[in-house]
Amino acid sequence: MEPKNEAELAGIIAAAEGPLAIEGGGTRGVVVGGEVLSTSGLAGVELYEPGALTLVARAGTPVAKIEAVLAEHNQRMAFEPMDHRGLVGSSGTPTIGGVIAGNISGPRRVQVGAARDFLLGVRFVDGRGQVIRNGGRVMKNVTGYDLVKLLAGSWGTLGVLSEVALKVLPMAETQASVLVEVSDAGAAVGVMSRALGSPFEVSGAAFDPAASLVMLRVEGFEASVAYRLERLKDLLGDAGEVSFTETFEQSELLWRAVRDVDVFQGRAGDVWRLSVKPSQAPEVVARLEADGLLFDWGGGLIWVLMPEGVNFRQRAGGFAGHATLVRASEEVKARLGVFHPLPAPLQVISDGIRKRFDPRGILNAGLMQPGAGVAI
Amino acid sequence: MEMPTPNPEIIARKAALVARLERVLPKEAIISDEIETRAYECDALTAYKCPPMLAVLPSSTQEVSDVLRICHEMGVPVVPRGAGTSLAGGALPTADSIILGVAKMNDVLETDYENRIIRVQTGRTNLSVSGAVAEEDFFYAPDPSSQLACAIAGNIAMNSGGAHCLKYGVTTNNLLGVTLVLMDGTVTEIGGGYLDSGGLDLLGLICGSEGQLGVVTEATLRILRKPEGARPVLIGFDSNEVAGACVSDIIRAGVLPVAIEFMDRPCIEATEAFAHAGYPMCEALLIVEVEGSPDEIDAQLKVIKDIARGHNPVELREAQDEDEAARIWLGRKSAFGAMGQINDYMCLDGTIPVTALPLVLRRIEEMSKEYGLDVANVFHAGDGNMHPLILFDANKPGDLELCEDFGADILKLCVEVGGCLTGEHGVGVEKRDLMLVQYSKVDLEAQLAIKDVFDPAWLLNPAKVFPLAITKDRREARATAA
Questions:
Q1: pTM of the full predicted structure?
Q2: Which residues constitute the domain of residue A196?
């Protein structure tokens, strides 16, 4: 089913007699049972005010379309949403609704925030078929409860997004990256922490253990970038050999590869996404015996390649944070669970919210639920 | 302002409640004397007052949990309170409620520079969070004007902003984790020292929920390294429209200042008379601040000054040193105090798309004439968060009501042009009855459903945020059950 407007979407959900599998572009590897309900017919940028840094788009609008519209005015979605297609082996067209539903953010999250931090307002249809609006299109809004944040990252389980309003930011004039040769994870996190704790506005901090390389991105106008590169070199020179990317394109490609976890593409195994306190990252990953690792967000986000079917959460032991199974067979997902178990009181609250927004349990049934691993 | 009629049955159980509380709290943490409870009769929205039945000041998460469990069991409404600086009446009690103040809980629990976080008890004041990490040159970014006095608990409840959130975001963008006590006494953690919490974004939901979903006793906050330097420039214009257009052009140009503040003539005159900051006498002025190394600052200010010159400013003044920078900020920071010297005022907080600034300022001026009440405008222009200050005389019968009507008209205008009722102060009781201007009943029902989940008995801060008529059944169901 592919509604052409919000009213049709609401009608379909109100009349649904069985579970619905909510789909944007279908690129994030989400597999759930039920009849497919696609938002791709709800497309188009409704409003764009460069002078107010705001853009409103229907949920099915392709991400590429939004990026192109923004680029005409030298603006961008600063949270840098990742493209999952290479990693999970999907095809299709990523949509803005999918980005928001999954709260998909890239390397710049460490500096400017996640997708949810740039989401100003939503319109969505709940499990009863009611159209609900929350937030708006202004930068600051504390009028009532923040269902905007709640909908971001709810993976279509509370409602189907029909329209989103985003805060956008100016594109940087240029960018470059500092590369530090470091082989040990502990030392790498130390380097990234020093860089992120400096006044030099690092907008990306990643570590690729296979290349023994810490990567630090700085963005801004030309002279400022050059200045900050040198200052970071002074700051971090004692940790390892320091070099810089030579061109804008080289730095840009480097960060696109980090964003989309290119290092795991074409390699067999399960892919896990671990969110953890950076200083705790080295000890946790040491317990994993992983086939591959990529550290982003200064060590706060670790992409982990594991042999198929290994119970990652058991191996990781106790840690503060959570792990999501991003790529695996449906059998493994069902057995290990895609989303991290929640503390009991939060599970009760989450179940309660879901029951209110979707009393019949028809929206992406089973997704984000403990024990039921059908997901991502 | 209508508040629910106090339930005499609850008040009749006061002695029993005190007896139970005395078993879990030290005696000095329970304030039941009718004179002493008057200290808690209002917050910074002083037009409305009502002493609570009791006030309690617990010292730990466990004590908060005990108090809430007892009140839950006895069906007593609880109004959480941080430092009582709410401009929206968020901490206004009813006569059958208890005030639960977190002011005694103000410890720093952990500072962690490697992970760039600080964990504090939420009674701690906003400014003293920055103070705790200042020696390592770090700071906590959200900076509401009341930052010297306001508590992190209230910042989280209202999702507070400040002058510098154009670059650094508001509370919700800087909050990583909380210890939350639910109305039934359950203690739980949401998030922590890592960037994204798993599952539904309950942290985002708690932030800005005005103390209606739970009591936050501890918070993990993101701290940032201070920039190498910062420098403001002051730009004066001969019309509000031109100043508004200049703001939009600066934003469009690709430089993102850390703050863009706006003051109009009435505000400039009042602050000048009060603080003697040396402001030019003009129709509107902007304070634009940028950060970085001295060279980076020069480069950014050059772009901003070039844009400003294109709008024929009557004054363009760049701070040459720390002292001049402080003087440029002095007037802005004393604006509210200065207005208070002239008369009573009501401070609004509607937010509009930046592009609608000239139109909205013109309409406010017209309405000011229609109502016969003066308005001064001082606000965060970069993000469209307006703060019209309507002057009135509290001793003149009918003036407060006139002022409130005027304020409501301004907020309706904000919604009409695509904005919202409140950008950073919260709804509280002040804007409660305007919620249906911004949202439909269905929109609000979705929010009420959230409260049903967290606080099924509707005991936490129940008379706030939503029009009383639409919460009546829920609140009365509780009264019957109790």
A1: 0.96
A2: 174-259
